[in-house]
């Protein structure tokens, strides 16, 4: 899992930790929503909160390939997790660089590892420069990023992850051109991830699934910055993070909702929610000052180039939230019943 944690990255991580059949081999961190070191600390703290010590967390690229870094604390909070406050982790950040983790782990487990990238593509682009065979050695790759003939969330035409490092995205898509269909990345872009709108009722249902004795209420009429009083530490953490995200979306006239893009990508990566895809040849604009970061999909073969992506064209938000709530709720119930310090 390669992340820039990030509220929706945090939800995606917690979801993967809730799935008993998933082995999370490593987490690599890139700068994006916040700086790369803060990303790593967020991940380590979340692992400990969920009772999952021992998973390697490595820092990678701290700046994009060619352009200055832009972070987005106004969207995700000063630490990247909204109003949530996590304890300083006991586990240390890995001594390995994220690129070494990508290359070494995939070489050691050919055909077994699914990569999930929910941040800028910088680390993976650098790993491809080191080992061009990664697309063939991976079992599969799921990317949250881009938007195709759909309004961007960073510029009128660009999605956040791609806009942070468009040059990396361009390199990654170029590396997949001409590979067999089953090796092409599954791309979860804004036109389907913005359909995954977390609402106050979803957090109430999460509290119920976790066995919380009192309703978990995150409501638009409550004061901004109000904190959860839940006795379940995982429910409280997610509520405080998502309240910040909902307030941000409301500020930009999108309603009191949270687009949990990365949580859908995580569900898709483990095959726990239905979706359909379309083959396309994708390229990324890197030269135009107006259109930089724009992702373009050729669905009709007009460029005469082979496909390099499977773009998600439809999904089922209701099913996705049922999956997230039931699975994370089970984990939260276990976390809430664990003895202190366990």
User: What Rg, in angstroms, do the CA atoms define?
Assistant: 19 Å
As laid out across the biggest beta sheet, the strand order is 4-5-6-11-9-10
What coarse outline follows from CA principal-axis ratios? Answer: globular
Mean pLDDT rating: 96
Q: What is the terminal separation in angstroms?
A: 25 Å
How many DSSP E strands? 11
| Structural class by helix and strand composition | alpha/beta
User: Helix proportion of residues, in percent?
Assistant: 25-40%
Spell the H/E element sequence: EHEHEHHEHHEHHEHEHHEHEEEH
Q: Provide a count of the helices.
A: 13
The biggest beta sheet is recorded as: 6 strands, mixed
- Binned strand content: 5-15%
Q: pLDDT below 50 for ≥5 consecutive residues: which ranges?
A: none
What's this entry about, in short?
This protein has helices at 7-18, 36-49, 73-76, 98-108, 122-130, 134-137, 160-164, 166-175, 190-193, 200-209, 233-251, 261-269, 317-337; strands at 2-3, 26-29, 56-59, 114-117, 140-144, 186-188, 197-198, 258-259, 275-284, 295-298, 309-315. The chain is of the alpha/beta class and 342 residues long. It has a six-stranded mixed beta sheet.
């Amino acid at each position: 899992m390669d992340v820039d944690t990030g509220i929706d990255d945090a939800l995606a991580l917690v979801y993967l930790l809730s799935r008993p059949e998933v082995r999370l081999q490593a987490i690599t961190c890139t700068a994006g929503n916040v700086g790369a070191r803060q990303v790593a600390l967020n991940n380590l703290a979340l692992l400990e909160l969920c009772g999952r010590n021992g998973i390697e967390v490595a820092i990678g690229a701290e700046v994009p390939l060619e352009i200055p870094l832009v972070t987005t604390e106004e969207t995700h909070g000063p630490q990247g997790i909204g109003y949530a406050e996590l304890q300083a982790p006991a586990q240390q950040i890995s001594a390995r660089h994220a690129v070494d983790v990508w290359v070494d782990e995939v070489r050691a487990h050919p055909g077994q590892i699914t990569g999930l990238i929910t941040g800028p593509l910088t680390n993976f682009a650098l790993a491809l420069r080191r080992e061009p065979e990664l697309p063939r050695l991976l079992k599969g790759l799921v990317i949250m990023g881009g938007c195709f003939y759909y309004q961007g969330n960073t510029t009128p035409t660009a999605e956040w992850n791609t806009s942070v490092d468009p040059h990396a995205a361009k390199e990654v898509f170029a590396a997949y051109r001409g590979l067999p269909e089953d090796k092409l990345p599954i791309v979860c872009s804004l036109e389907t991830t913005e359909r995954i709108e977390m609402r106050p009722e979803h957090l109430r249902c999460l509290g119920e699934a976790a066995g919380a004795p009192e309703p978990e209420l995150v409501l638009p009429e409550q004061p901004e910055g109000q904190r959860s009083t839940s006795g379940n530490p995982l429910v409280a953490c997610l509520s405080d993070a998502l309240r910040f995200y909902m307030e941000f979306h409301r500020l930009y006239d999108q309603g009191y909702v949270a687009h949990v893009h990365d949580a859908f990508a995580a569900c898709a990566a483990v095959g726990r929610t239905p979706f359909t895809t379309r083959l396309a040849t994708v390229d990324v604009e890197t030269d135009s000052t107006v259109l930089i970061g724009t992702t373009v999909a050729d669905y009709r073969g007009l460029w005469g180039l082979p496909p390099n992506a499977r773009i998600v064209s439809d999904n089922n938000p209701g099913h996705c939230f049922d999956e997230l709530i039931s699975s994370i709720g089970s984990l939260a119930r276990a976390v809430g019943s664990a003895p202190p310090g366990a």
